[in-house]
Amino acid sequence: MENTKELFSQSGIIITLVLLLIPIIVACFIFINRAKLMLKKLYFNYEKKRFSDKIKMMNAEEVKALEHRVQELSFELSDDELGSSREARDQKGIVDNVNQNSVIRFLDIKKKSQAPHEYNPETVKLIIWYISTATFWLVFGTSVGEYLGIKFTAPDIDHISWLSFGRLRPVHTNAVFWGWCSLAMLGLAYYVVPKVSNNQINSLRLGYATLLLVNGAIVLGSILLMAGINNSGGEYREYIWPVMVIFGTGIILSLYNFYRTVANRKTHEIYVSNWYIISAMMFLLVITVVAYIPNWQNGLGETIIQGYYMHQGVGMWFMLFNLGLMYYFLPQQLNKPIYSYSLGILAFWSQILFYTLIGTHHFIFSSIPWWLQTVAIVGSVGMVIPVVSGTTNFLLTFKGSWKKLTHSYTLPFYLIGIIFYFTGSLQGTAEAFRYTNLLWHFTDFTVAHSHLTMYGIITFMLWAFIYTILPRLTGNEPPQSIVGAHFWLAFLGLLFYTFPLMLGSTLKGLMWMESKPFIEGVAFMAPYWIWRAIGGSLMWISHLLFAYNVYRMAKTEIQFETPTNPVEILKVFNENQTEAIH
Amino acid sequence: MDFFNNHIKLFVAALSLFLCLTFVVAILPALNNQENNAPLPTMTSLSLDEMEGKKLFIANGCVACHTQQVRNVEMDKVWGKRPSTAADYALNKRVDVWRNTATLMGTERTGPDLTDVGNRQPSLEWNLLHLFQPRAVVEQSIMPAYPWLFEEKSTLSAGDIEINVPDKYRNSTQKIVAKKEALQLVAYLQSLKQAELPDGSMPMKFLYERKQKSENTAESSLPDGQQIYVANCQSCHQANGEGLKGAFPALKGSPIVLGDDLELYVNIIMKGYDARAEFAVMPAVGSNNKLSAEEVTALINHERSSWGNSAKKVSKEEIRKIMDLIQTTKQ
Fold first, then answer.
1. Which residues of chain B have pLDDT under 70?
2. Which of A412, A174, A192, A458 is nearest to A288 (CA)?
3. Same structural domain for residues B232 and B184?
4. B210 assigned to some structural domain
5. Among A169, A270, A356, beta carbon nearest to B5
6. How far is A175 from chain B (nearest CA, A)?
7. What burial class does residue A45 get, using C-beta atoms within 10 Å of its C-beta: 0-12 exposed, 13-18 middle, 19+ buried?
8. Residue B142 belongs to a domain with what CATH number?
9. Interstrand relation of B162-163 and B150-153 (parallel, antiparallel or unpaired)
10. Class for domain A121-436, per CATH?
């Protein structure tokens, strides 16, 4: 028991509990409101009874006076004093597009996407290519992930070397990192960068070159990993250098492309989205070069670089890039400017300053220098500044538009992405403390954390952006019921995936601290791994639905639409007339 | 502000800040650690076979689940005699032109740490069978099986090492023989031994020490014998104490376990055993894992009273006397 007491006095544990409590507190808030409503109702009935008791005391005279007054008050005009009974006409065409069919509201009907806008069809085609290939890698990468999750409970499901756990694990992580997230981000940037520069993209051909190179790198990299050829096991740099050269060339071409577009912008200022996007691309190139140059990788050098690389990959590429996209899409979707431009700038610089320092927090208590570990812990705490300023900025932009949430099929994705941005990132801070490293390091807690962030933040945000922009570019809406199913399966799946893993690995960590035999911890995790596989399956099904939605949004519609407005009907009528004359 | 509206100034500023920080927290510390590091005099370089084994270890992504670091915290004491130091990694260098220096430290411990596995589990037979089918020796293991490192043969040729696989885990009646790769991988695992510091000292203390229970002479103060058995013995002698036919002898009904020759019994636990040709060699489990007299007593009492075994319990004093004797004869 002493042990438990000690556990709850640790700041890392307290922070995590508070973060986990946030959704519960929201639920309590709703519950209290309900209870208040019930109390009010009771009070209402009581007052009503008191009043009717009092009214019983009225004498006949008082009743008469009241009746008289009621008659006076009920005077009304006859409604045709100023006009006649002629037919009403809307001569100025003010009332239009009235929906008179009422339907049974089994599923709440959300607002349609804004009307499609004219955009260079060639650029649209390129963006669709990016998003379609990204979706392919999402489905592929998570199918592999799902299979790996099953292997935790059924290790003898296959005995094929190409499909063994150690080889497939990096196939999963790299496919969703470089395939799904990176391609989706680049595709969306091909819309955002020219848009906020009030300009056309510099070169479409470079865009296609990047598309080919990045996709090629992932195909090649995945095959090599399964064949057992990897770059020696450092997480997220498992692709050998020739593969990363292909990938990096793709990034360089698009970076040049975006940079030229920003340089030739038609606006005076550089919108903050472009700060984030261009910087993310520059930083990705820097970390890849640092990670692959052999000159400082002997002995512990490798470990220090690995800590730096894997964390900057997450923070300087995925997070920075997505925040840039968020600064464009959230205001666009809410139809109002971002709450504070300055907070966006503060978040930008503080993110660079603190995030760069935290890499080695993956190696607390290891033999890398103690001062470097301490710097990483301090940097992790510093991350509170960009995270809180970013979250505040987004939520205050939301403020006043909460009603829109219920009527939109995209905004729930935004909201979940923003909430996980807050909880997921601060959970990372809590995990960096020394005590929490004893408890959680080396366990599946890390796996839960990486899914809360890469999935809860990055993937939910990307979905939000794709559902926002694709219908506007192609004019095709996805079926709203399937978008809803996608959202709920992905969200619930993520909770089923992460919560059991976090609980199980906390208890496993305690077992380790009590020096219980190692194999007991393995056996102990079995039920939690089953829950993880169940959550993973829900997530995986949601990706199939998403892929279908992308197909529906991207395909070219060849469908006859019956004209409904008078202009079109008349046009067809006149065409018929002219044909008849000829 | 002009700065914010000038793309060259803005992006150069952001890139410079990032590059400066990169130098300070990554490149310079990495270079510094690489330059000011040397292997301990007690360490040896990997042999050719061990090196090939390391490559197999990398190719199959073993690092996804196995760490190689003993952190300077109490809970990591089970994985090594002392906390790992920079010198332990000094011989870890770039593999070849295609591949970087191996990531050995790892970030996940889904399977046991391997820093000192060469001392903890040196048995060749056990390692081969474990690679062929981990569940044949550790029932609850979730480690992948590596049957492609083995081949089936109808007759053995010279130098072949046959693996004694229980019927449950084989598809045919043919002989299962370790390929060169399996032997190389095991050679690498057996080479993983934590080197002693030249003066035998500790590089640093283990932090977060747990409060030791007060030394009581009472029987109840002995550690949990079953846990010691699970952690040190069970992977060969199995949870039911019956061992594995043709590989590891049964402790259930064993004359040594039940008999009165305590000296031989403790000797086997501490220094290993290779007297019976039909079974694999037993490593010096007790000395390798630094079992104390209390732990050995608890272990013997557990073995003498489990799986239907029923023999007189032994006392801590008897065992300590025998262990002191072993200690002196060793020197």
1. 1, 211-220, 330-331
2. A174
3. no
4. no
5. A270
6. 16
7. exposed
8. 1.10.760.10
9. unpaired
10. mainly alpha
